[in-house]
Automatic annotation (TrEMBL):
Domain annotation DhaK: ranges: 7-323
InterPro entries assigned: DhaK_dom (IPR004006), DhaL_dom (IPR004007), DhaL_dom_sf (IPR036117), Dihydroxyacetone_Kinase (IPR050861)
One Pfam family recorded for the sequence: Dak2
Gene3D superfamilies documented for this protein: 1.25.40.340, Dihydroxyacetone kinase, domain 1, Dihydroxyacetone kinase, domain 2
An example Gene Ontology biological process: glycerol catabolic process
Domain DhaL: 352-539
Keyword rRNA processing belongs to the record: no
Keywords for this protein: ATP-binding, Kinase, Nucleotide-binding, Transferase
Name assigned to this protein: Dihydroxyacetone kinase subunit DhaK
Amino acid sequence: MAQFINSRETLVTDAIAGTLRASGGRLARLDGFPHIKVVVRADWDRSRVALVSGGGSGHEPAHAGFVGAGMLTAAVCGDVFASPSVDAVLAGILAVTGKPGCLLIVKNYTGDRLNFGLAAERARAYGLNVAMVVVDDDVALPDLPQARGVAGTLLVHKAAGALAESGADLATVAAMAQRVIGGVKSIGMSLDTCTVPGSPKEDRIAPGKAELGLGIHGEAGVEQVDFTGARDAMARVAERLAPGLASGRHVALLNNLGGTTPLEMAVLAEELAHSVLGPRIAAMVGPAPMMTSLDMRGFSVSLLALDAEVEAALASPVALAAWPGMEPFGPPLVLPLPDGLSPVDPMASDHPAHRALLTRCCDLLIGAENALNALDAKSGDGDTGSTLAGAARALKGALHRMPLADLTQLYRAIGVELSQTMGGSSGVLLAIFFTAAGDASASGHDLAGSLAAGLARVRQVGGASPGDRTMIDALEPALAALPKGVAAAATAARAGADATAGMTKAKAGRAAYLSAASLSGHNDPGAEAVALLFEGLQG
């Protein structure tokens, strides 16, 4: 897979150089590239306890992204997923440790324990006061003699860093770190493995599956489970964290493992609130990428019980872009709609024929969702089918409160419903279409005349005309032929939709930004939707 790197050999040093260049002078590095890769606070004066952490690269923003006032003093970076050398760790310790001493915060991996541990011994031989704690928060493999250290490490950085910044002595800082380590528990889930630069990708997670409890270096998880969506995924993670959970209030750290979109992470935050853990969570860190695994499409959750001292340490502000801060976690605040926008439901009435027609229209659009998305993906962003199907589902669910027996009010009610439930410009235009049709119906126009008036208003407001490669290319001929019957309208709509495949220049809509090559040979998805609708109605 192509990646924005120069070479595997220079990847980490190039990344550190870019991080420093963008830090505004807040960070520095020790001389010693490529073997010694240590990022330090540029303002450090050794007057307080130093915090040193690190490990293999590939977990960015950890660890260098958390170097700064209130968190780490130095980060020792290894190559991708490889522990840094003893000399590199020792260089970091010697660079930042003064009389107050130094705390090493190490994730529980053999290479990290050995290299940081030996460096600590050598530093003590220099007369330095060095303590070391080992983070083992992963609960994925309960029978493992030594659990892995994963994203919970960041809570250790933050809590210990707050005390160190305040001037606490080494014993106090180390005790805080050990308190957090003793309480934090984490587990992750992913839909895919990560892509290690220069190595073939391991495709061990089958489509339709998710891996529970995999490591931050891409190590296999405890099991592969069926994936059905965010709710079930979070429920499975919560089930693993819930046993033995301490009583009282907790903070949750919701971590993006690298390749999950912010939109998905926000959904996972909502599902965490609805999980068995939800009532116990009083505060959240994230959702954000903090301890990543390159481009892994997954997430992890870390939980820690809060007491007054731990909460104060985690809540203390730091000027680090990578640390999202700890915020209260609770129900969303909902404000009333401004005056004039609160929906006024018309008087509901039934009309079996109108109900059947609208139900049929909605079912046709819902059934065409995947086909229209696939067509839109050839020349757009692949959401036309979902947009129309979503509106159709909402409209179908609202039929029980529609004025079905009064066409004038029905057109207007459909317009209001679409304006509230259908996104994008399509929703606005269709709302205008039906609202204008309602106005025409109130003036005595029949079905065809009312719909034609709605189209005229859409053309006026939207600015599109036949030949501009929009839904109008199918809708205008269909409505013109509608007085001759639905079959005639369907034939005209199909001819109009198919003609758009030969239009290599769109003059309206999102397709106006696309090249001729992207448009040629593909029907406009909006026009295709109109054609499919009329064709379905003629049967």
